[in-house]
Amino acid sequence: MKAVSKGAYARNTIYTDVGSDVKLMEQNLIRSEQTANKTLPDWFLPHLSATDLKNSSRPDAILVLPRQGCERRPMPRVQDLPISDWDVHLIEVKYCDNARHESQLARAAKQHRRLMVTLKAQGCTKVSLHIILLGVVGTIKKHHTETPLSKLGLDHSKVRKLTQSLHTHSVQDATKVIKTSRKLSYQQNNG
Predict the structure, then answer these.
(1) Domain residues of the chain, as ranges?
(2) How far apart are CA 45 and CA 53, in angstroms?
(3) Which pLDDT belongs to residue 175?
(4) What distance in Å separates the CA atoms of residue 11 and residue 78, rounded to the nearest whole number?
(5) Per-residue pLDDT tens for 69-88?
(6) Range 173-180 contact pairs with CB under 8 angstroms and sequence separation of 24 or more
(7) Cα 6 vs. chain centroid, distance in angstroms?
(8) For the chain, does the N or the C end have fewer beta carbons within 10 angstroms?
(9) In whole angstroms, what is the distance from residue 96 CA to residue 131 CA?
(10) DSSP characters for the chain?
């Protein structure tokens, strides 16, 4: 999400799955103005009750752009545009088994299906779901990782740099898990 926030569409990004304020403060982090802290912002679905808004699915990030042909200069805040002029991109990042990614794709699509239907019912004519899959031990699939990132305003070189970084982090994390598991198993067997 950090790469998307520095891309061409940074100003129009909302983060909705960032954790609690308490946990962020414990890590000396402050929630940015662009986060909605586990709920969707009121202006995003104005016709929903507070309860329905709170219970709605929350993708990792939401990118709200003016629909093609509705761009204006200077660029207004998207919440000031009619919802029919929005081009909404829901972004969900999932980790999956390196060989079986179909179930995570289906799970993410099901998770946000109702939100997409709700947005369309409120007049949003263009809603897209971008599912970014990362293999748990570093597998990066072009179609499920690189392609969605490039559709979110990242140029080719940034996509390549990001996927290499994601790959490295996944391999490092998997290595830590394997080492810890082996250490615990050894301690358990040798008492």
Answers:
(1) 2-190
(2) 7
(3) 84
(4) 10
(5) 656 555 667 777 888 888 89
(6) 174/136, 174/137, 174/138
(7) 14
(8) C
(9) 12
(10) -HHHHTSTTGGGEEE-----HHHHHHTT----TTB-TTS--GGGSTTS-HHHHHHS---SEEEEEEPTT---SSPPPGGGS-GGGEEEEEEEEEEE-SS--HHHHHHHHHHHHHHHHHHHHTT--EEEEEEEEEETTS---IIIIIHHHHTTT--HHHHHHHHHHHHHHHHHHHHHHHHHHHHHHHHHHH-
- Residue the block writes with tokens 């830590």: 176
Q: Which two tokens stand for residue 74?
A: 């200077």
Nearest to 44 by CA among 66, 64, 18, 71: 64
Tokens representing residue 171 in the block: 């391999």
Residue 88 structure tokens: 């909404």
Q: Which two tokens stand for residue 190?
A: 């040798």
pTM: 0.70
What tokens were used for 173?
């994390």
